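Ops channel
N.P.: pipeline sanity check, posting one input/output pair.
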């Protein structure tokens, strides 16, 4: 009997000790490894905000706006710790499917590209409790031409015409300087522009470029051709070669994403100059004078930050020169000081409101 009593006392002490351990574990302290913290960890995981990125067909290695989008996304991921979910689109027919997959597993979906306007309109309406943002576009119903204002869709737009203006100012001043000062110029006072598709972001770049190059040199001949493609470099190379061989264009501005790399290749092979787009493309060839830059990485990062901070808005401001949303890349050694100064003068005028480059090609 005494032995049973001793065992009972031991069992009672063990029970009390276990209760004390459980009580300590349930305090939710900073230890992080106690069993009592598991419910808090589960709750935290369930409440974590998930963010997905759906690229356009160029993919994250396009060295353009898809890559920049991924850069901004990666910066936000490192800061907020969400699990990466990046869907790279292979065909325009996959837009709806990819956005739907992203929305099913994420709280915020970022679509990259104007061509997803209809798809994001459709998917955002199917998932009204999820948030969406679209680079270069807006929610547009099928068959419509105007943007819809949906409470859960943020259109991320840029004043590309301002970036186009600045590189146009550089090109214009170089044409004014002429062959006597810049020996690589062909001397025909002609420049070429190779666009991808005639969509608003592309046309805004071209509008600003053409407007400002003619403000510097009203007599310059500006050739504009569209490749009808954003991914095939051969098409843009053919367009640029035609401008160079047939019209002696000595500066080629590419506004065609991955396709436009072919235009810069053509310019380099023919011994003339190129101007890149979206990101700094000076690494491609020494003949690239500069690039019209669109800071998509900033837009994507800021959008995710606002979402994480509970400040998501379906009416974000346009990303412009005054707010470091657009600009131009570092210039090459072939750009004379007066051309660099012309770009700076135009930049100051844009920021002050004295110069307003147009959105539409004139």
């Amino acid at each position: 009997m005494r032995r049973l009593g001793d065992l009972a006392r031991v069992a009672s002490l063990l029970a009390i000790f276990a209760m004390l351990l459980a009580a300590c574990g349930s305090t939710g302290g900073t230890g992080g490894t106690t069993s009592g913290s598991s419910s808090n960890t589960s709750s935290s995981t369930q409440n974590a905000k998930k963010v997905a990125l759906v690229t356009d067909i160029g993919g994250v290695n396009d060295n353009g706006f898809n890559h920049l989008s991924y850069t901004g996304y990666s910066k936000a991921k490192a800061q907020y710790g969400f699990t990466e979910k990046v869907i790279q689109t292979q065909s325009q027919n996959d837009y709806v499917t990819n956005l739907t997959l992203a929305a099913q597993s994420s709280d915020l979906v970022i679509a990259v590209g104007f061509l997803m306007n209809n798809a994001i309109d459709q998917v955002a309406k199917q998932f009204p409790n999820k948030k969406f943002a679209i680079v270069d576009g807006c929610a547009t119903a099928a068959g419509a031409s105007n943007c819809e204002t949906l409470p859960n869709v943020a259109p991320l737009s840029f004043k590309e015409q301002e970036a186009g203006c600045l590189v146009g100012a550089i090109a214009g001043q170089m044409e004014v300087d002429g062959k006597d000062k810049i020996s690589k110029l062909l001397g025909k006072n002609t420049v070429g522009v190779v666009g991808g598709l005639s969509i608003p972001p592309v046309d805004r770049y071209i509008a600003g470029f053409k407007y400002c190059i003619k403000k510097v040199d009203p007599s310059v001949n500006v050739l504009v051709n569209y490749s009808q493609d954003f991914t095939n470099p051969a098409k843009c190379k053919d367009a640029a070669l035609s401008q160079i061989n047939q019209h002696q264009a000595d500066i080629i501005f590419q506004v065609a994403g991955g396709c436009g790399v072919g235009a810069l290749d053509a310019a380099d092979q023919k011994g003339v100059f190129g101007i890149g787009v979206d990101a700094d493309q000076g690494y491609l060839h020494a003949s690239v004078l500069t690039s019209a830059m669109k800071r998509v990485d900033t837009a994507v990062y800021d959008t995710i930050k606002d979402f994480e901070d509970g400040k998501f808005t379906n009416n974000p401001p346009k990303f412009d020169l005054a707010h470091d949303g657009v600009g131009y890349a570092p210039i090459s050694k072939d750009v004379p000081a007066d051309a660099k100064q012309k770009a700076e003068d135009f930049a100051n005028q844009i920021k002050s409101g004295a110069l307003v480059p147009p959105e539409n090609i004139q």
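N.P.: looks fine end to end. The longest strand covers residues 288-294.
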